Amino acid sequence: MRTLICFCCCALLLFGCNKSLQQNDLLQGRSALAGVSASAVAIPKSTAKKIFIHWMPWFETPASRGAWGYHWKMNTRNPDVIVNGKRQIAAYYYPKTGPYASGDPDIIEYQLLLMKYAGADGVFIDWPGTRQRYDYPDNLANSNALINKLGAVGLQFGIVHEDRNWDPGMAADAHGDFTYMQSNYFNQSNYLKTNNAPVVLNFGPITFHQPAEWDVILNGLNPRPKVIPLYGFTNQVGSNNAGGEFPWIYQDHPTVVNNYYAQAGSFPLSIGVVYPGFNSFYAAGGADGPTWQIPFNGTGTFSAMLDKALSSSVNIIQFATWNDYGEGTIIEPTDEYGYSFLTIMQQKLGIPYGQHELELVSRLYNARKQYAGNGSIQQQLNQVFTYLANLQVSQAENLLNTLGGSNPPPTGVLIKNKWLGTYLYEDNGQVKYSAGNSGNQYRWVQETVNGHTRFKNLATNHYLNIEHLYPYAESTDVPNTYYSSYWKLETYNGNVRLKNEWQNTYLNVENQGGFAQCTAVPDFFESSQWILQN
What is the four-CA torsion angle of 229, 231, 235, 238, rounded to 10 degrees? Predict the structure, then answer.
């Protein structure tokens, strides 16, 4: 459970935050990422804020632990029951991969690559600690499996400590959590640090509310970490132990988060929050937990929260969460929302990639499962992973396309004009037409991005567009956020008209000038009617 119910106007006051750290010395620069792995290249983006994604390690399947874990079933669901091809899980949303095991290396690869292509710099791991109780040891093993893969992808990480997993009076035992972090995490080059001190978020405190207890928990650590509690709780950790505060998801949405942003500049380290909404399954799952909701408004809540975070003074933006299905705060691809949260991140963070690259990652995952046990193909897929980690997208796609029977390469469609009987093709950035149709330059792959249709030329990977309002239609490299490359398919007399969403004009060959135009043309003119042929 990750929920907060607005703790008594929590977070409205600062509690003696340590101001010894200077704002411009807070975070290791992106050059630290570059040193993580020789093959890992950082994703370029337009924001200087660090992007971290909150990840849960607590999902299990019969293949991983011999039975379905609690977080897929709670008390009322049975994932062995399959209806319409989907397992019965304790969630209102269904992962595109189906329910998975958090420690599955294929899932870890898939999730980390998706995070990277969405703009992430790192992962905040909801970390169970070292207590031998419940499923905590499994969660710790899953966390370590993810951490072991981070360097190869080129991502940083930080721990979100769960002091709730200890009982009152067990501060000395909780000290063991931090000595474990010191031995296993803090010395890694991709661990998040502030002024050379490791950063440890604390989801609370929930159990230890006195600075003296935190003095015991942190005693003797070298380097001594900076604990980042929830908004309003520095006084419980102690100003000498805390290094900032972070907000979460509150019933009083978005007031508490807005209050935090108003004070963000006062914190040594400030961490904003972005979430899609809140739609918990606790009541339906027969589990304890809040029943209030924050509407998703499609993707409107997510988009608005991201705009707030980007315009604030925070150093880091935390996306909450990647995969908390119990609380319905998921941004990983689901059947209900597809890739929409990740493509919004790409657009607003200035990422030069789109849904196509995210789909390539999914193709890699599907191929991993399809060819499980096939050593030679798995070696090829290892190379696909390396290409994707290194942002060598075309090489990864080409190699995927050569795998025997795995996701055969798209062949695209021919776009034939009803009036002239000619076919569209790309020639040096222009969209022309001719009677011939041989060659990939004549074929166009229809793609969907955030509910919009684009046409990609199979020979060049350029997109049909009217970006410069030239007398001719273009086929060029245009970002997937540009409406100049979005087309609506309208039907007329059994044929298709292609309406540009930016100018509301129609693709046609009315002037017979050797190239396609995009102008206002009556619907009954066959010059604007097209036949899409496989």
Answer: 30
